[in-house]
Queue: 3 jobs
Job 1
Amino acid sequence: MTMVLAICVAVTFGVSIYLMLGRELKGIAMGVFLLGHAANLSIIAMSGSPILHTHGAEASRAPATLEPISEHLDEQRHPLMTGVNIKQPPVLEHHEPMTDPLATIVDPLPQALILTAIVISFGVMAFLLTLLVVTSRRTHTLAIAELAQEPAPEPDGGPAQA
Amino acid sequence: MASEWIVLFAVLAPVAFGLLTLWLPRGWIEPRMVLATAGPAIAFAMLLNTAIDNRSALQAQHDYAEAQASHNDHAHGDEHDNSHAAEDASGHHGHADSPADHHSESVHADADAPAPPTTGVLPWMPSLNINIAFLTDGLGLFFGLLVSGIGTLIMLYARGYFGRAGPTSADDLYRFYPTLGFFTTAMLGVVLADYTLLTLLFWEMTSISSFLLIGWDRYDKKAVKLAMQAFFTTGLGGMGLFGGVLVFGNATGYWRWSEMLTHSDELTAQLQHVGEHPQLLWAFVLMFIGAGTKSAQFPFHYWLPGAMAAPTPVSAFLHSATMVKAGVFLVGRLFPVFAALELFPLVIIPLGAVTMLYGGVVALQQHDLKRIFAFTTVSQLGLLMAMYGVGAIDYHGQPAIDYDVTQIANHALYKAPLFIAAGAIGHVLSRDITQLNGAFYKHPAICGTMMAAALGLAALPGTISFQAKELFLYGVYHGIEAGNVVLWIVLVMTVLTAVCNVAICVRVWTTLLGLPGGMREEHGEPDHGHHHEHAHEHGLLAHLIWLPGALIVSLQFVGGVFPKLAWSRMLGLFEQPATAHNYFASHYGGLPNLTELSIGTPLICSAIAIVLGVIVGLAKPLRGSIGDFADRIYPAMYWLSVTGGGRCFRLIQTGNLKHYLLFVLGALLLGFTWAVQVDLADNDGGMLAALSSDTAGNLFEYWPGILLGLIVCLTAVLIPMTEVRIVRVLFLGACGFAVVGLYLVYQAPDLALTQLMFEIISVILFVIVLRLLPREKLHTIKLGNKAWRLVLSCVVGGVFGWMTLIAASTDRSATNPGKYPLGKTMAQHSYGNKDGLDTAMAGADGPELRGGGGTNVVNVILVDFRGFDTLGEITVLGIAAMGVWSMMPHRRRRDGRTAKPNNTEQPGVTA
């Protein structure tokens, strides 16, 4: 599963760099947006694969070898798949013993980090889009080459639209 | 020893009272003056009390030790009839093996390495070696009294000075008193702080207050420029001092001046072999840069004449009497230890001597009174520096310094009155000396003060200045006697400087009295002073414009006529113990009376200086008004840093996103390549192993994952391939939804929900924004451009994929016994159930650990464990919202412009 994620990270990252190297602000904004996805995906990859590995040919069939948790797993198999054991989301039954909670649930820390990142990247995007609108209002172009030739705006806000 | 609270209060009193004056209504000038004056006055009283306490404590120790000594050893006891401090000190040397009694030990320490009188410590930032403690030794207290004493009188003088300036005076005083109080506090802090870094802190505060006061006239562009120049120069020196203090603290572990003084033996030994301790050398050089710039040593002296743009009370206080002496003070602080450094006299004497002569010569060629006195200040500061340098030359086998405090005091006692009188005369007549011919008959009090102070400048017999100059000449002469023939040059330079000073004195006298030799206005030179004929004030307050100066200058003559009294009652209280070995003490038992001086080279030098000075003063040549070439140093530096810095900046900050990206990605690729190299060489290629499917997991192990991954990749790749922008946005959205799916696979329902919501809003937002944007022109994109973009993107993308694999496959269990320790701990503490905790975390009898009380671990992390992070996130969101709001078109309508209807439909993106 990590491999899938790594490929996704590679592709989204590549595309976002490609977009950001472009010559037009809209594409750059999309690149920034995509960059957020790429970064988030690479962070969540660090929580390790949610697939519980068992060795050998019976990996797909046999129940997990971990005795204390196998019963939970049996109840909570992933609905889409038979035979693959998947960890549970980081939501606790508070009565259960927790000597090693991460054996049964996925690592919650990367998720918390990403949650923050999502919100912030949304804020950044909103800001960026507004900037885009304002820029196009003032300069009538979003092409970088043309923007570079615009005179620097006056301190009081530049030549306002009539 | 003084309580730290008392000294702290004394230090803070001026600024506290200065701020208190802000509560008074603007018109209340007299109460304001009284309140502002109270600050330094109280500080003065408290410091004086501390000084007397210290003195009596020292005396008590002394007496006790004498009693002990005579009790234990009668043969030595006889020596104590001699009251000379020098022999006292050497007498105590003999009792190293007297009973190891508390007191005699401390006295013994006093003779060898004096235990400096420090106050207690108020902890402030102990981990950074900054605490509040004060060193109330002679040097510090002397400076403290000088600052607070002159400060008191300057507060009064300011009333006289601004009081006549017309309708703005109330406003001026309103601003002036708090600023001056701030400076007084900063300066007191510099001289009294024990922690080196605390001294530095106050040191910078003096630079800031000096800046504020030089640029007092905020609308005078020139003054502001000069203020910048002073600030820049002394600020640079402050950096030097900072570096020096850090290097010194690092090398020795001493962060207090008192520690430095008590361990002077050890440090002296190290400094004598400084080759093995290069850090100490650096510390000295850096600290001296700080001292040299602050004390206006050549070639950094230019800021001081420039600082004369300040109102005269400021010039008299900061730029002659106190702040510029901070550098001298610092050298005096370092002297007991760093005098052992061979470099010490070699650096300080030449610099000081050159500054001294240069200042004197340039002063001769000025016409503005304030500039004349400013250059003589530069000259005198050079002399004070050179004095410490000369003191470091071994005399009778020991570095010795003759009455450093006396010489410093002497300068303050005539220079402050000179400035006070110059400011006063500038207010009533003019500051240009050529226009003051015969001014004495119009303003006898002001001119009388100036003329009396000028006698001190000329160091004529009868002033304490004369003794001070003699002291310096003796010091140089003894250096020559000790075999340093080069010092003849310094002696000659001193005499020449004295000639300049005498000449200026003669000019002031002849001009003010209207005598034939005086300066006259020649062919209508432009007047630099502002000579408005102010309305005369009457009453006692009117005299405040010269009375403080007269008070200060009278001390000159008291000290000059009764030097023994001055030494034993005033200045002797503060002399450093090193002075116990000086020449005057052993010959005259203090400062010599005039009649006691024996005829020798120094006295002859003084006589020569006076005679030549009178000739030069009366002679016509050398009266032109020329500038100071060093005035160009700062503009050159300014040009270099601003223009040159701007060019460098534009070289790196091109403003082109492409360049930034290339920099960042290039650094990434380089770093990664290097990491792979290192990994292959040292670590058996663990990074390469991350690529194998063993650790990365089977690609095909879970088909929903493959499906979602495919969608993510496909939509992402399609975005740049389509030209229709709405379709691109839809692809972007589709990619985002597939990412939501991946979150689900990774068992992150919170992420999936949040991302889903924001993804929907984002797509809608993007579409709306697209509608507001102009239609883009069809670009003809060159293929070459596309090709390198493609290559770079592929490489970087591949590297990131690889890095993800490495990060995900790191075997954390190998380095940490508990796998994923942080996430595990957080999961365990999320609800706070004690049962499952490791025994180490909750001991059998420990308190029940309470967690976040929630079962959703991610939520608990966000609001509890990383609550401040979340607060920061909210702040970022708030800032973004404000930015969006401020840019939104509806704001324009307030300007009376009508926005287009569709402009106002910017959606509330931040809701």
Job 2
Amino acid sequence: MEHFLLSWTSPSLLLLTAAGTLAGIWIGAIPGLSVTMAVSILVSFTFSWDLNAALAVIAGVFTGGVYGGSRSAILLNIPGSPAAIATALDGYPMARRGEAGAAIGLSTLASFVGGMVGVLALALGAPALGEVAILFAPRDYLLLAVLGLLLVGSLSGESLAKGLFAAALGIALGMAGLDPMTAEPRFSYGSVQMLGGIPYIAAMIGLFGVAEALHQLRAPDAVRATQRIGGIIPPWPRLRRHLPLALRASGIGVGIGALPGTGGDIAALMAYDHARRSTTQPETPFGEGAEEGVVAPEAANNAAVGGAYVPMLTLGIPGDAVTAVILGALFVHGLRPGPLLLTETPHLFWFTVGNLALANLFLLLFGLAGARAFARIAEVPRAVLIPLILVLCSVGTFAIRNSMADVWWMAGFGVAGYLLRLYGVQAAPIILGMILGPLMDASWRRTVIAAGDSVAEAAVEAAGSAISLVLVAAIALVLLRAAMRVRA
Amino acid sequence: MTTQARPPAPGERLLPLLLLVPAGVAVAEGVRLDGLASPSSPGAFPLLAGAVMAGSAVAIGASSWLRRGAARPVGGVSAVLPPRVAAVGGLFLAALGAMPWLGFHLAAFLLLVVSVRLLAGRGWLRAGLVAALSVAAIHVVFRLGFSVLLPAGVLFR
């Protein structure tokens, strides 16, 4: 309890969580600026900070950013983040009907409910999963990482082949440097600098910051929000009517968020679909401003935040691109997220749980109190914003190791990320591959060595393990679904 | 999510060939590190990653070939690199190149002035003001607030 309340009782941590949430809402509300970009740039500044302070800001930005995306979705019909795509379907028609305030109020309250359900799921689910995770053999980590990469690869891009290519490229990039088992240089080509590997934080900032900023220049500036924002807090009977849907959608969000490789965007779309199927007689049809169409995706995408923390903290496997960035930051801070995190550093886990709950409270406060102020955010001109983001990317990258070489890595990944995205190859599998690559490599080799350097023997051993069989079945299911999509 | 929603970009048919380059590099590194000799060697996983990349590149190429003629690529080089992306991207790289000489503050200021002037199409004075305020804000927040070091220049620190 002491650690749960640490960020609530420490003035500096309280302030940092509030500032992080506010910054997250602000960034999330700007169309095109993703939470992943914000967290990527931000984490680089926190490496010299106390760990709790860094976690407080990151949790605030993550929570606020996922919620902030709904603002531009409702007011401009431009989702501020992929997680808000579903919100725009009914949020914007509500705003056009003169109910922008009600849509913002509902989205805020639904996000709060979803966020708190996510925190509860993290508090209850992570220790339980942690106990199971202790039973995991190296091959299970390998299979789990493969599952995560397949999910990201098949869901984040336009085809499984492009997703697989990106993931494998990330794995290869992640293996650059000295082999941790034999100290043999890999992909270094005689360069002393390459022996240390490719700095993945610089790669993240390049792929999510620079590449995204350059892509934003391809689109015209956002139009001015012309929606009038009226009453924000909906009457209690209306809230009570939507609460069961918000809770069900939160459950979907937690489940989807906890799956390695899936995040708030998929959770929101699935919750929207659930709302459409389960609401037989909406007051307004879906797609024309149904309140349920705002409540369900908003509850789900914020619930997915807590859900995404579960595999990250218990298994060391990121739930989505943002948690991949956070995982990278935790490594830099000297932590090894995984099954032992909860037993060796339980204070850190409970601090994170308490901090996420606090960030959700700030989300509610800022979301309702700053509804009108945030409406102006989506109109920030790209002419100022994009060059500023590029400058911040260089500041953030230089801050990692005070090295201009890292800055050039960042620029290189930025240009490559811009071009790859243009051809439908997404950045998220590359980053996940870079982070999971060394873990997969080590798990593979430990598994094979334990089986007498025989892949066939390792496969026989895996066939005798229930955990391994479940993971293999999940991988087969993902591949089968992807194949069916291709055929369709 | 897995459908080809966007129109093909110029040169999309060449993409698989370009993707085969990193795949070949990974395979070559895997072979060099005895990836074929032992599944637990340092080269095993690079070889595996390279093989997956190569297989994916072939699948992307096959899919592109099957869809040939379905939609023609839109635009030329400017569709890949529109003028304002090329200009701002070029300015960004130039500013990074100048940073070891000019230092962060001056290089960032120049990048912001020219970019804002170029993108907003308003006066130099306005762009200069926005740039100066932005650099000052970055200095206060990051250098003074977060104690983050900013690149120093040989000519200007």
Job 3
Amino acid sequence: MKYLPGFAIPCLLILWWLIATGGGRDTLLPSPGEVLNVLLHPLVDQISTGSLAWSTFVSLSRVMLGFMLAALAGIPIGLIMGASVNVRKYFSLIVEMARPLSAIALLPLSIIIFKAKTFAQLFGLEHLRYQKNLLNEMQLGMIFILFWGGVFPIILGTIQGVRSVRKLHLEAAEILGAGKLFTFRNVIIPSALPDIYHGLKLGIGRCWMVIIAAEMLPGTNSGIGYLIRFSYQLSRYDIMLASIVIVASIGALLSKGLEFLGEKSLVLRSRER
Amino acid sequence: MTTLKISGLSKIYREPAQDVHALGPVSFESEEGDFLCVLGPTGCGKTTLLRIVAGLEFPDTGSVSVPIRGDGAEPVISYVFQQGALFPWMNVYSNIEFPLKAKKIRREIRQSRVEKMLEMVGLSSFRFSYPHQLSGGMQQRAALARSLVMEPDILLMDEPFSSLDTRTSQDLQENLRNLLKRTSTTVLFVTHNIEEAVYLAGKVIVLGHRPGRIVCTKTIDLPDPRSRLSDTFTEYLVSLRKIFESLVLEE
């Protein structure tokens, strides 16, 4: 109920959309009805690229893998950089130089390096090359730039979390007899969690944006981003708009999902006296 | 036997504008089971003194000596902060358990000691509550439990009840006296509240303003249980108030 006011503007836009495309007018923009029609049949094959569900599944899988690698690397790096001034000094130059290199800008480079190798090829499953198989769709180069896009927000968020641990808590831990490692596991990390979750949220948002954009570039023929480009080229704007709706929804879901996971740690920390 | 010996302790904060002589040479001693109250106006260096004894800060001159216990073990020093400093991401049980876990004490022993502590401070039914769900008084009780669960030889307390209302504060003072009755812990209690000092302490050390030097030391000889309404209590109160007045007038 409390989300109702938020729906006002989108509803108005949809109304306008309905009016603009209604009444048998011959418009370029498909009507909401046509887009809905596409959305309601997620398992139907669209323009022989696979169904909506399949495309979404492919994009999501890529993001999940890239994001998890980014988190697995980013959180430990951030923890160490946050805890040690020396490490931070050594690595900050590299990090600051690497950060502005946008993940998308690196796509051509990564294709050159990874030569469009897929996971299927990695695992020696060459014979699957012409079948519709997920492993076939996971290109190393693409996973790499997803990793690149996600890792920096995660590192920075984690560093922020570690550095913002309250001195009072560190002193209390020391006086109560906690050694360095014990303090790190039981005081620093729980205290840093809200900021780490924030970094993860930013990271997954970036990953999602990167994959959609990357799929629009040459190098792949599956995924929701690819579907957007291809359906545009074939003038099937109803599919295109349906894909855009999916992109937006999933982006929101991913972000909200992480926010939900991080809620508890944030609440605990923010309610202290 | 002496449990704590402070000699010639002083601390000067060197600021760019001027040196702040926070604590001017201070010396005193304590015996086992003593309850020493360091009483003084705000800013007289009493918190600094406590933090130096705790090892959180280092003095510019002098030394703190905590002799090895009778049985040859290192003395255990514990601290209660003014704001409690409970860990907000842990519930009361985990907070109290913290020092025991840090020392890798076995689970069964941990459990029994934490349960005993919870009962002694009256928080048994709140063991799974989080700090933010507790009132100020309950939080301080939990903080106290956390410090006492280590069975410390020396307990340092930095104005632990100053942020509470009078009634709660007095209840906790009484709680504290009862808790300590069965132990031989030496307590160093810092406060600016004269009544609190008279109620709790065996000996009151009055610290003057910058520099923080000992103005006088008073032994409080009141029968147990102490009554805030007795004549002797009031006498001590008044004489200490007079000393305080003269301190304030000096500025």
